[in-house]
Amino acid sequence: MLRNAVVGFVVLVFATGTVWAADKEVKGTVVKVDLKNRTLTIKTSDGEKTYDVNDETKFIGPKGGAADDGLKDDRLVAGAPVKIMVAGNNKTAHEVHLPERKKGK
Description:
- This protein is of the alpha+beta class.
- 20% of the residues lie in helices and 35% in strands.
- The protein has one domain: CATH 2.40.50.320.
- It has one helix at residues 2-22, and strands at residues 24-34, 39-44, 47-52, 58-60, 81-86, 93-97.
- The protein is elongated and about 65 Å long.
């Protein structure tokens, strides 16, 4: 009985670790925000990549706070630097880390 519980726990830890390891960080600059299709295109060192954004995607400000405007945030403009945490499928953004707002806005 104890052996089964230990094996189950080890499998659970391994599976959870695999899911966490699947996310990757991508840094780049915003090229295009498509509100209709809910996508964000960024330019990286590997070229342009487009990522899907869904209701589960978190938008995070430069100081770690939540940004509630999502794709409509005024910081998501062409040329703005962003960091995206991408799911293992390499298509869906889990988190979008936004830059600071420009002075005067």
